[in-house]
Automatic annotation (TrEMBL):
SUPFAM superfamilies reported for this sequence: alpha/beta-Hydrolases
AB hydrolase-1 domain span: 24-262
PANTHER family assigned: HYDROLASE, PUTATIVE (AFU_ORTHOLOGUE AFUA_2G14860)-RELATED (PTHR43798:SF33), MONOACYLGLYCEROL LIPASE (PTHR43798)
Name of the protein in its database record: Alpha/beta hydrolase
Organism ancestry: Bacteria, Pseudomonadati, Pseudomonadota, Alphaproteobacteria, Rhodobacterales
Taxonomic superkingdom: Bacteria
Species, as recorded: Pseudodonghicola flavimaris
Gene Ontology molecular function, alphabetical: hydrolase activity
Keyword entries, A-Z: Hydrolase
Length: 276
């Protein structure tokens, strides 16, 4: 494993669970590496998770504003990918996981993408779904444009939280402060997710992704997510899609057992060397 001190800004890394498989996990915006505990418990004995806090999240330092935040998060993930591993990402973390598979397919044994917010894919196949998302997100984006960061964090949490957990005012002060701290990264990653300067959504952009892939979404999530997952699936050759009833965008946290069950299927498609 690369020394995280070699990065421009070292990040916090934790290990969760036990097992022969090594799994690299990339969390969503406004979360932290600890949100993978439920999945680690569900997979305990099968997989050992390596998870890190993105910049401006958890125990990692605030992003210094240099470079592109998706590129910076990708560099962190690449530093932790020192042998073939199973890779999972959620939401923005799933976009980083997909780029990881494009950059180093030799080191990604299997790929699990949960609710990837790579809007560039849906812009090509279902622009109306993106337009609906933009309309629904307008209160959040307008609040941030006015400099109302706390209001923006509250509205973003309401939109993507799917009604899971307590209302904003009932959240612990530390939880609200953590979300407010991370919310500037949402507009900062817009170019990467919509304009796709990395070319992942371009023709041939996913040609290197030949490992088994699992695409998961919640049945109750925003319609733009199914447009994105369908568009990504159409580009891949070894792909499973799973929609979890009763789940929304936060399904890795709310439904870790369902995620673990689906991942066992992709693990079977990507056996460890020497496995019977």
């Amino acid at each position: 494993m690369k020394d995280m001190n070699d990065l421009p800004q070292p990040v916090f890394v934790r290990e969760l669970g036990t097992g022969d498989r090594r799994l690299l996990a990339v969390h969503c915006t406004l979360a932290h590496s600890g949100v993978w505990r439920g999945l680690a418990q569900a997979l305990d004995g099968q997989a050992r998770l390596t998870a890190f806090d993105m910049l401006s999240h958890g125990r990692s330092p605030d992003w210094d504003g240099q470079g592109d935040i998706q590129d910076r998060t990708l560099d962190t993930a690449l530093g932790l990918l020192d042998e073939p591993m199973d890779v999972i990402g959620h939401s923005f973390g799933a976009t980083v996981a997909l780029r990881l598979a494009v950059a180093r397919p030799d080191l990604v044994r299997s790929l699990t993408l949960i609710e990837p917010v790579y809007f560039a894919f849906a812009l090509q196949s279902a622009p109306e779904a993106v337009a609906r998302h933009e309309a629904d997100a307008a209160p959040f984006t307008e609040a941030l444009a006015r400099g109302e960061v706390a209001t923006g964090a509250r509205l973003f949490n309401r939109m993507w939280g799917g009604g899971v957990g307590p209302r904003w005012d009932a959240l612990p002060e530390a939880a609200r402060a953590s979300m407010i701290r991370g919310i500037p990264l949402v507009p900062a990653c817009r170019q990467a997710l919509y304009d796709d300067p990395a070319g992942v959504a371009a023709p041939g952009g996913l040609d290197a992704v030949t490992m088994p892939v699992l695409l998961m979404r919640g049945c109750d999530s925003h319609p733009v997510i199914s447009a994105i997952t369908d568009a990504i699936a159409a580009r891949l050759t070894r792909v499973r899609q799973e929609a979890v009833p009763g789940a929304g965008h936060m399904l890795p946290i709310t439904h870790p057992e369902a995620v673990a069950a689906a991942m066992r299927g992709v693990f079977a498609d990507a056996p460890l060397p020497g496995a019977a």
